[in-house]
């Protein structure tokens, strides 16, 4: 235990005695902890002032749990990373399909005559840039992974003196509709 922690003796020589008794491994561990807990200083070569930089430190894992793919961090779980990549590819195809088959897609835009005699053209489109994919392991025995696809559907409008002019005018987004779809992985994303 470290000096001053719960249950440790309040003796100021505790650290020295622990090092003498347990040797080099404890001294190395304590020196590492102290070095990592101090904010790092970064200095710009062109300026004389030092800047404080936050350092992220990973906490030790729970030693009671065995290391398995179910409790690995996402960046270490290769199966989950592979499924995330596959889901992202599936999601791009799905968004392309949704754009192509949407009831109010650009190819099937709705042109409405307004009371003042002008025409307003309107269509819906999903931007692939708004796509966010999340994949997690499922607790189900039959469905190992669940993917969540989130995206923003935009409604675009333009107006003109005639219906043809409205169809070919410069469109601007008038509304954004957030969407979320949940997919299961069972021999492929469905």
Summarize the structure in words.
- The chain is α+β, with helices and mostly antiparallel strands and 190 residues long.
- The chain has two domains: 40 residues, no CATH class; 108 residues, no CATH class.
- Helix content is 28%, strand content 29%.
- It has four helices and seven strands, in the order H-H-E-E-H-E-E-E-E-H-E.
- The two termini are 52 Å apart.
Keywords summarizing the entry:
alpha+beta, 2 domains, five-stranded antiparallel β-sheet, 4 helices, 29% strand
Number of domains: 2
Uncertain runs are 1-9, 34-46, 52-59
Order of helices and strands: HHEEHEEEEHE
Which shape, going by the Cα principal axes? elongated
Instruction: Give the helix tally.
Output: 4
Radius of gyration over C-alpha positions, nearest whole angstrom: 29 Å
Mean model confidence by pLDDT? 75
Helical fraction: 25-40%
Q: Which class do the helix and strand fractions yield?
A: alpha+beta
Q: What kind of sheet is the major sheet?
A: 5 strands, antiparallel
Proportion in β-strands? 25-35%
- Compute the separation of the termini in Å: 52 Å
Number of strands: 7
């Amino acid at each position: 235990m470290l000096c001053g922690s719960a249950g440790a003796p309040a003796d100021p020589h505790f650290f020295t005695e622990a090092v003498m008794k347990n040797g080099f491994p404890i001294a190395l561990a304590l020196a590492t902890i102290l070095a990592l807990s101090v904010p790092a200083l970064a200095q710009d070569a062109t300026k004389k002032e030092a800047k404080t930089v936050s350092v992220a430190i990973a906490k030790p894992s729970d030693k009671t749990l065995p290391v398995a793919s179910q409790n690995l961090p996402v960046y270490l779980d290769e199966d989950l990373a592979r499924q995330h990549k596959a889901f992202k590819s599936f999601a791009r195809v799905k968004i392309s399909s949704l754009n192509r088959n949407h009831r109010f897609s650009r190819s099937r835009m709705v042109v409405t005559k307004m009371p003042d005699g002008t025409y307003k053209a309107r269509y819906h489109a999903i931007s692939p840039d708004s796509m966010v994919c999340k994949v997690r392991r499922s607790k189900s025995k039959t469905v190992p992974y669940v993917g969540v696809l989130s995206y923003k559907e935009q409604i675009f409008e333009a107006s003109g003196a005639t219906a043809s002019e409205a169809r070919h005018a410069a469109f601007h987004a008038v509304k954004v509709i957030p969407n979320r779809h949940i997919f299961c992985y069972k021999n492929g994303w469905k």
